[in-house]
């Protein structure tokens, strides 16, 4: 393993086109992909995120990272990497608040499956399978949605979404073609 310092990646903000694309599967674990995954993990912790998906940093690939236990375990890092993930099971339904690094300052309750089973490849290309509940389950579903161009604000009830419409529109028109927020984010 070569020693490489991970880079901080820039988070694309709502209005960026990559956030709305269907991401492509990873076909080979090249050095570039491995480096990218370590940058993604680094950026997730740097931005205090529970998870981070490749499209959120401008790469339309089916990769995300999560660490739902970071806060609980007093800063002990245990990043989980999912490449080409697929859900195998959904059970129950539960509503809880969500936010997203790509949609700053907006937090809304979203209905999700209570329990999920997911399979995918880890950073080494080895098959992994997780059964998840609570925040872990929610994080997996939220991040996996990013790979299909879906954002949590798409999933909130219509009436609530109407109230958010202006905020989202303001954010969108302040986001340039590189996904950079130009000017103040709407409060
Ligand atoms: Co998100």
Topology:
Elements (H helix, E strand, L loop, with lengths): L30 H16 L4 E3 L9 E4 L13 E12 L2 E7 L2 E10 L2 E7 L5 E7 H14 L10 H16 L14
Antiparallel strand pairs: 1-2, 2-3, 3-6, 4-5, 6-7
Q: In terms of quaternary structure, what is this?
A: single chain
- Helix-strand pattern, N to C? HEEEEEEEHH
Class based on secondary structure composition and strand pairing: alpha+beta
Helical amount: 10-25%
Question: What is the strand content?
Answer: 25-35%
* Strand adjacency order, main sheet: 1-2-3-6-7
Number of strands: 7
Number of domains: 1
Instruction: Give the end-to-end Cα distance, rounded to a whole number of Å.
Output: 44 Å
Ligand identities: cobalt (II) ion
CATH level-3 fold name: Peptide Deformylase
Q: In CATH, what is the class?
A: Alpha Beta
Q: Averaged pLDDT, please? A: 91
Global outline:
globular
CATH homologous superfamily identity: Peptide deformylase
Radius of gyration: 16 Å
Q: In terms of per-residue confidence, which ranges show pLDDT below 50 for 5 or more consecutive residues?
A: none
CATH architecture classification = Alpha-Beta Complex
Query: How would a crystallographer describe the biggest sheet?
Result: 5 strands, antiparallel
């Amino acid at each position: 393993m070569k020693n490489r310092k991970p880079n901080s990646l820039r988070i694309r903000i709502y209005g960026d086109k990559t956030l709305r694309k269907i991401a492509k599967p990873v076909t080979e674990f090249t050095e570039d992909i491995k480096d990218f995954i370590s940058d993604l993990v680094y950026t997730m912790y740097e931005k205090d995120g529970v998870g981070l998906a490749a499209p959120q940093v401008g790469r339309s690939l089916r990769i995300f990272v999560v660490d739902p236990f970071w806060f609980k375990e007093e800063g002990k890092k245990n990043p989980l990497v999912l490449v080409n993930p697929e859900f195998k099971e959904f059970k129950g339904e539960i509503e809880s608040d969500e936010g997203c690094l790509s949609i700053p300052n907006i937090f809304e309750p979203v209905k999700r499956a209570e329990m999920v089973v997911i399979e995918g490849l880890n950073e080494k290309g080895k098959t992994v399978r997780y059964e998840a509940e609570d925040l872990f389950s929610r994080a997996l579903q939220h991040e996996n949605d990013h790979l299909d161009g879906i954002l949590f604000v798409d999933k909130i009830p219509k009436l609530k979404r109407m109230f958010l419409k202006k905020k989202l529109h303001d954010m969108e028109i302040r986001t340039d073609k590189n996904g950079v927020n130009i000017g103040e984010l709407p409060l």
